[in-house]
Amino acid sequence: MRSSFRRQSWLIAFPVILLLLWTVVYPNAAVIAGSFENGLGHWREFAASPADREALWTSLVISVASVFASLAIGVPLAFLLGRFNFPGRRLLRAVATLPAALPPLVGVIAFLFLYGESGLITRIVQRILGMQEAPWRLKGVGAIVFVHAYTMYVYVFLFVSAGLERFDATLDEAASGLGASTWQRLRRVTLPLLMPAVGGSALLVFMNALGSFSAPYVFGGGLRVLSTQILASKTNGALGLAYVETTVLALSAVAGLVLFRWLDRKRRYTLASKGGRKRREIRSRRIQILTSIAAAIIVIALVLPHLMVVLVSFARDGVWTTQVLPPEYTFENYRRLFSESELWRPITNSVSMALVATAGNLVVCFLAAYLIVFRKFAGRGLLELLVALPWAIPATAIALGLAATFNRNDLFSGRILLVGTFWILPLAYFIRDIPLVASAVEGSLRQMDASLEDAARGLGASWLLTMRRVILPAARPGLVAGGLLAAVTAVGEFVASVVLYTHANRPISMEILAQLRALAFGTAAAYSVLLIFLVLLMTLAARSFEERLA
Amino acid sequence: MTAAPRARGAEAGAGVLALNGVTRRFGEFTAVDNVSVEVGPGELLALVGASGSGKTTTLRIAAGYEQPDAGTVTLGGADITRVPPERRGFGMVFQHYALFPHMPVEENVAFGLEARRVSKAERLEKARAALDAVGLSGAGDRAIQSLSGGEQQRVALARALVIEPRALLLDEPLSNLDPTLRQAMRDDLRAMLRRVGVPALFVTHDQEDAFAIADRIALLKKGKLLQVGTPEELYEAPESREVAAFIGRGTMVPAIDRGTTASVIIGGQTRELNVNRPKGMSLPYGKAFVVLRPEALELVGQGGNSAWPGRVVNRRFAGGVIVYRVELAGGVTVDVESASGNAHEDDNVAVAPTKGPFQ
Questions:
Q1: CB contact under 8 A, B102 and A474
Q2: CB neighbour list of residue A469: distance below 8 Å, 6 or more residues apart
Q3: pTM of the full structure
Q4: How far apart are CA B274 and CA B18, in angstroms?
Q5: B49 and B178 part of one domain
Q6: What residue numbers bound the domain in which B341 lies?
Q7: Containing domain of residue A145, as a range?
Q8: Are the C-beta atoms of A96 and A291 separated by less than 8 Å?
Q9: Cβ–Cβ contacts within 10 Å for residue B293, how many?
Q10: pLDDT tens-digit profile of B9-34?
Q11: Residue B102 touches partner A, C-beta closer than 8 Å
C-alpha cells in the first residue's frame, strides 16, 4: 500500500538516517563549529601561521604529484598488459595489483627497509658506487610521492584496464579504416574514450593522497602536511587550530571532488561492452627481449617490498646496522608475538575491532542500500548523500570529529563518552567503510530484477520473508565483497587509529609504529607479515563462503 | 489435488474483479484516468494500449502494488483497495517473469505456499503438480538460468496458479517470447487461463495477442479507457476515431454521415458506403470518419466510374494475398488486399470499396 509503504520505508530509513547523521554529520559539524568557537580567532591563527600555510601547500603538491606519478605508472602498464603479448605477461598481470594488498603502514615500512638510509637497495647502490654515505635519503616530498605512486597506481591500473577491456575494438578498426595512424588513433580515439576511467582513478588517487598519513608521518622528516599537522596541534592541546586544519583538509577534499566532476562534466558516453580485442604479439625480437626485461624489473620492484618485510621479520632485533642484509635470523620475533600477552594484545584488538565494525557496516549498509535501490521516499536523496559522505572526508578529519564529539556523556547534546573506550576505533572504522560496503551491496541489488520483490509480495510473502528469501540472497555477493574489503581495511587501519587509540585498545598498526620507533625492526616486520597473513586469511574465508553458498 | 483449480464461483471471495473509476497520478502526470472495468470469473480481459497508455499501472492497481488516488478495486463486491498485495491472494505473472534466480524451479513455484506456511512436503508436492499442469513435469530441480524463455513463462504461470489465486494478473505475458513460440503459447495460455475459472486480467501492447487470447478487450490511451468490448466489437464498431486508428490496419478518411451510409469524397470522386454506426453516435448528417480496411477495398479496372484512381507505390506479398499500397488523389494512401498479383509498382489503378459495411 502506498501510504503504509511510505510509512514502512520511513520506519527503516529513520533509524538508519538518524544513525548516519549522528555518526557522520554531527562530528564533522562539531569540528566546523569548534573552529569558530573563538569567532574567527582560530582561523586568523591558521592564516598567520607559516607552518600551516606550508602544510596546506605541501598537501596539495603531494596530492597532485601523486596523481601524475600514479598515472605515469598505471596507464602505460594497463596498455602494456591489455594490448600486448610478451613472455612474462601473465606473471606481471598477477603481481600488478599486489601493492593494494599491503596495509598502508606496512607499505611504508617495507619502503623503509628497501630504500631508507640503511635499506637494502640503498646499501647495494652505495656499495657499487663506493660511496661513503647513502646515495639518497628517503625523506620529504619525493619520498612520499614515491610511496604513494607504488601503492596508488593500482587504482589507475585497474580503472584503465577495465576501460580497455570494455573498449569496442571496432572503433579502433573504424579509425584505421579511415586512414588514421597508430598515433592518431591513440590520441583521437583510444585516449579520449578512456578519459572517464583515467579521471575517476585520478580522483581516487587525489583523495587518498590528500588524506594519506602514514607516508608523511614516517618519511616527512621536518615536512608538514595537513594530516600530520592536525595530529600535532591536537597533541599540543591546540584543539581550536586542529579544528581549523581539519576543516581546511576536508574542504580541500571536497574542492578536489568538485573540480574533478567539473572537468568530467562533458563526458556523456559510456563504452559499449563489445570488448574482445586480441592482444598483439610483439614481433621485433629486440623489443620483445626489452619488454620482457622491463617486465621482470617491474615484477621484482612490485614483489620486493613484500619479500623484504618477510625477510626482516626473521631478523634478530637490534643487530641490523650497517650490513646490506640483516646478519642474524631467528624465529624469536614470531615466538614472542604469540607467547607474550602484551605483544599478542594488538592482534586480538585489531581482529575484534575489525569484526565489530564490519558487522555494523553489513547491517547498516544493507538497509541503506535496500532503501536506496528499492524504495521511493522523501529522504532517499539525503540517505544517498550520507552514505557517500565519509568517502569525501579524509580519515584524519573523521577521527578528529569523533574525538571532538564523543568525549563526554551529555545526552542533551547527543554525546556519549567513547573516547578512551574500546568502541571509538570500531566506530571510526565503521564510518570509513560505509561508502565501500554500501556501494558494493547497491551494485548487487541493482542487478536484481526489481519485480522480484513485488513477485514475492504478490505470492503472499511478508516483508521479513521477502527480505530473508529474496533480497538478502540477491545482496549476498555485495555483502561478502564489501564486508571483506571493510574487514581488510579495518584490520590494518592506521590513520584514524593514530588519532583515537589508547594503550589498551591499540591496533596492530600502532604497535608496528611503536616497535619501529624502538628500532625493533624484526618485531615490526613480524607484525606486518601477520597483518598480510590476516588479510589473506579473510580473503580465503570470504571466497570459500561465497563458493559454499553459490 | 489439481494444481490449476477449477472455477470456484461458489467459494467465498471468488467473483467479479472490478476497477471502479480508478485514477492514479504521478505528480502532474495522470497515468490512469477514471478507468472502470469488470472481469467476471473465468473471463479473460486484455488491457491494450501503446506504451505510456497506463495499462501496466492499471494492472498494478488491480494487484495492489499501486494505490489509486481515486476509485476502488473490488473483488466479488468486497472493497480490496487498501488490501496490500501479499494479502490479496492474486496470482501475478510479471513481464520478465520475476523468477527468483537463486532458487530452483520447484522452490520458485512453492514460494507462495512457503509464505502461507504450508509444510515442505506438501508444498513440493503441489509445486510438482502445478509444473505437470503447465507441461513441465520433472523440471523441478532445474536452475532458472537453464530454462528457455517459454519454459520460464510456464514456471511463472505455475507459480501464480499453485496458490489457487482469486484472480490472475499477467503483465505482457508473451512479449518476451520469439514469434513462433508466441503463436503456440497464445492457444496454450488461453486454454490454461480458462481452466482456472477466476477473473484474468492481462496487459499487452500487441493487439494480435489480445485478439487471440481475450474474451474482451479494454483499450486505453493516455490513461483513459476508450472502449471495452469483444475483439469483434472493437474491430467492426469502434466508438471513436482513436479506437479505429489503433485496432487493425486501415486508412481513416473524412466522410459525411448519412445514417446507414456515409459519403466519402476522395479526389473529387464521391462514393456512398454502407456503414456500421458506432453505438451512441446519434447525430447523423454530420462530419464523420470512415475506416477503409485493406480487406474491404479492391482493385478494379481502369475507368470504373465511381472508383478512385491511383498509382501503386508498393506491392507486398503477404501469404495468399497481395497487399498493394495505392496513392489516391488528394494525398490519401490506402492498402488494398487483392488475390490477384497483376498490378505492379508504378501502375495506374483504380480502387473501389466492396459492399461493406464500413466503420
A1: yes
A2: A456, A461, B100, B103, B111, B114
A3: 0.80
A4: 37
A5: yes
A6: 249-353
A7: 78-222+252-313
A8: no
A9: 22
A10: 334 445 899 999 999 998 889 999 99
A11: yes
CB contact under 8 A, A460 and B95: no
Are A432 and A374 members of one domain? yes
Q: Is residue B244 situated within a structural domain?
A: no
CA distance A474 to A452: 10
What's the pLDDT tens digit per position in A67-121? 999 999 999 999 889 888 888 888 998 889 888 878 888 888 899 889 988 888 9
From B209, B235, B261, the end of a domain falls on: B235
> B39 pLDDT exceeds 90?
yes
Whether residue A407 sits in one domain with residue A287: no
For residue range A500-541, list pLDDT tens digits in order: 999 899 999 999 999 988 888 899 999 999 999 998 899 888
Q: Taking CA atoms, what residue in B is nearest to A464?
A: B115
Are A434 and A464 found together in one domain?
A: yes
Residue B289 near chain A (CB below 8 Å): no
In contact, B41 and B211? CB cutoff 8 Å: no
CA distance B223 to chain A (A): 20
Whether A135 and A276 map to the same domain: the answer is yes
Whether residue A379 sits in one domain with residue A263: no
Q: B115 vs A470: CB contact, 8 Å cut-off?
A: no
**Alpha-carbon torsion B205, B210, B214, B217, what sign?**
positive
Say how many CB pairs under 8 Å bridge A and B. 74
A128 part of contact set with chain B, CB < 8 Å: no
Mean pLDDT of A276-297: 80
Tens digits of per-residue pLDDT, B88-123?
999 999 988 889 988 899 999 999 998 998 999 999
Rounded to whole angstroms, the Cα distance separating A138 from A122 reads 9
**Per-residue pLDDT at A268 exceeds 60:** no
Pairing of strands A37-40, B322-328: unpaired
**CATH number for position B71:** 3.40.50.300
- CA-nearest residue to A477 within chain B is B102
Boundary (domain end) residue, out of B177, B212, B235: B235
> Residue type for A431, please?
I
Interface contact flag, A461 B63, Cβ < 8 Å:
no
Q: Which residue, of A263, A286, A313, is where some domain finishes?
A: A313
Asked if the interface predicted TM-score (ipTM) of this complex is over 0.85, the answer is no
Per DSSP bridges, beta strands B70-75 and B78-79 are antiparallel
B24 lies in some domain: yes
Highest mean pLDDT among A137-141, A445-449, B208-212, B219-223: B219-223
Q: Are B114 and A474 a contacting pair at CB < 8 A?
A: no
Does one domain contain both A195 and A342? no
Edge-to-edge strands, sheet with B17-26: B29-39, B17-26, B70-75, B78-79
Residue B130 belongs to some domain of the structure: no
In this structure, the answer to whether residues B256 and B325 fall within a common structural domain is: yes
Q: Are residues A266 and A357 in the same domain?
A: no
Do both A190 and A304 map to the same domain?
A: yes
- Of the candidates B236, B238, B272, the residue with the CA atom closest to the CA atom of residue B255: B272
Separation in Å, CA of B142 to nearest CA in chain A: 15
Domains: count for chain B: 2
- Do B86 and A469 make contact, defined as CB atoms within 8 angstroms? no
Q: What is the CATH number of the domain that holds A116?
A: 1.10.3720.10
Provide the grid cell at B94: 510479471
Asked if residue B214 is part of any domain, the answer here is yes
* A451–B98 C-beta distance less than 8 A: yes
Chain A touched by B67 (CB under 8 Å): yes
A2 in B contact zone (CB under 8 Å): yes
